[in-house]
Amino acid sequence: MKKNQTLFLTQAAMIATIYVVLTGIAAGFDLANGAIQVRFSEALTVLPFFTPAAVPGLTIGCLLSNILFSGNIFDIIFGTLATLLGAVGTRMLRKSRWLCSIPPIISNALIIPPVLTFAYHIPGGIPFQMLTVGAGEVICCLIFGQILISALMPARTKIFGEE
Questions:
Q1: Are the C-beta atoms of 63 and 80 separated by less than 8 Å?
Q2: Which of 75, 88, 99, 139 could form a disulfide with 70 if both were Cys (CB 3.0 to 4.6 A apart)?
Q3: CATH number at residue 10
């Protein structure tokens, strides 16, 4: 296997693992699911800014997290889809540090509220849940995500390699 393929697979696996661990911590505090969600792992959705390996890493991490911590088939499918779309959008906007956090916020705010309403029967209605899920995503993706970018920028080539 070539060095670049090994690096890609290693990065994806590490990102998936960290995503699952952080989601598990949030689940332990009852923050990972429900109308008000603050999944610390969502801060990692900025990682496609640095490496394309983050797209499959985040997707697999979200899939495993949803299997382990929610178990609802609609959440497993559509929650993972929301993360995939957000990660792809982040990768597409990687030239703009400030815009790259927006796709996961939008994808989760649009996709997750119907899951909460129809799969979990959480009251409040879709518009309210768009607001609460969107707020949680702003906290994790925009605020924590930008802090993460700032922390990783000085060491980005050592951690992620040259792009």
A1: yes
A2: 75
A3: 1.10.1760.20
